[in-house]
Amino acid sequence: MSEPILEFEDVDITYRTTGDSDVHAVNSASFAIEEHDYFGLVGESGCGKSTLADSIVGGLDDNGEVTSGKIRYKGEEIQDYSESEFNKKIRWKEISVIPQSSMNSLDPVMKLSDQAIEMAKYHTDLTKAEAVDRLRELFDVVGISESRIHDYPHQFSGGMQQRTIIAFSLFLQPSLIIADEPTTALDVIMQDQILDYINDLKDDWDISMLMITHDISIVFENCDSMAVMHGGQMAETGRVVDLFDRPRHPYAILLQNAFPDVRFPDRELAVIDGHPPQLLDDPDYCTFADRCPWAVEDCRRGAPDPQEIEGDADHRAWCIRADEMEDLAADHLAPATGETSILEEDT
User: Fold this and answer.
1) HSE of 53 in the Cβ direction (CA atoms, 13 Å)?
2) How far is residue 148's CA from residue 45's CA, in Å, rounded to a whole number?
3) How far apart (Å, rounded) are the C-alpha atoms in residues 138 and 131?
4) What is d(CA 72, CA 346) in angstroms, rounded to the nearest whole number?
5) How far apart are CA 176 and CA 93, in angstroms?
6) Closest by alpha carbon to 212, among 23, 57, 64, 12?
7) Which of 282, 279, 293, 284 minimizes the C-alpha distance to 331?
8) Would you call 74 exposed, middle or buried from its count of C-beta atoms within 10 A (0-12, 13-18, 19+)?
9) How far from each other are the two terminal CA atoms of the chain, in whole angstroms?
10) Contacts for 9 with CB less than 8 Å, ≥ 6 apart
11) Alpha-carbon span 166 to 143, nearest angstrom
12) How far apart are CA 252 and CA 40, in angstroms?
């Protein structure tokens, strides 16, 4: 197997504060994205998803710091890169970002063609004419008329602005795209269209993608592999079909069963009681323990280590009771149908 394009190994990320307690936003995060893989990172707001994404491109706030662990891009450690190194080696050229708020990402006083020229000026040897031609080609890729490249952002709808951001993310032909809540604030019809454009890129462009969302159904439908986070900790990682068919972390189980399933229209949806932890102390315990219906005292005595599920090194759950969860959570898991998984049918 080839080397992962992106790898997190036991990464801790801390935000320094002026008070007595720092914010331990991410703790011992570990996962890998393979080449040409669409990888979903899912979890509720505040669990550390966007912090992880920011660390990949050197976008942490001034008080944010990768305090331990390693982040590798194509085998090279990047967690200690300087601002100039991120600009020279990573940003846009290798890794680009589709942010969740397109309206705040495009310069409102510059024509889109001028923004393309500006990007080309700092990152490529393209002439102005070549930069405009490339943007014209990319507008065609995302379904926007080429005649609109000289418009201003305010002349576009929210969906068109998001498609424009996708075009700009492809401008320098990166190897990895980070899509951070790419359908936020869009209506359901436009959400479906944006996801279709993103999925089309996989076949037409040689790219990998990290898709960040709080909506686990989007990950199930659009990604190959995934990770679930809660309270700054990893909960579960593996192939999408495995986490769909046999989740083994309590949070992953409850999150999945909080969404309707057309196969079981009468099933009662799961409810996750309680509130996420504030992470002001170094969490030497399972951060889901206070909300977990199956927690025991040992869950609060140390941060959990990853457990391989049924001997599968690619499927891991950070839960000391992972081997028991199928039986413990039988009332929450969808009943066995004896049929092939929906996800297996689609692959």
Assistant:
1) 25
2) 35
3) 11
4) 31
5) 9
6) 57
7) 293
8) middle
9) 20
10) 30, 69, 70, 71, 72
11) 11
12) 13
Residues 346 and 196: their CA atoms lie apart, in Å, by: 15
With CA atoms as reference, report the closest residue to 250 among 274, 230, 275: 230
- Token look-up 């995060």 returns 29
- Alpha carbon separation from 150 to 115, 188, 224, 321 (Å, rounded): 10, 28, 37, 58
Strands 38-42 and 208-213: what pairing?
Answer: parallel
**Residue-wise pLDDT tens for the chain (347 aa)?**
578 999 999 999 999 998 778 999 999 999 999 999 999 999 998 899 999 999 999 999 999 999 999 999 999 999 999 999 999 999 988 999 988 776 678 999 999 999 999 999 988 899 999 999 999 999 998 889 999 999 999 999 888 998 899 999 999 999 999 999 888 777 888 888 888 888 888 878 889 999 999 889 899 999 999 999 999 999 999 999 999 999 999 999 999 888 887 877 887 888 888 888 888 888 899 999 999 999 999 999 999 999 999 999 999 999 999 999 999 988 666 554 444 454 655 54
**Full set of structural domains in the chain with CATH:** 229-346 (3.40.50.300)
Q: Report which of 242, 101, 286, 261 is spatially closest to residue 182, judged by C-alpha positions.
A: 101
How far is Cα 148 from Cα 303, in angstroms, rounded to an integer?
Answer: 53
Structural tokens at position 294: 């199956």
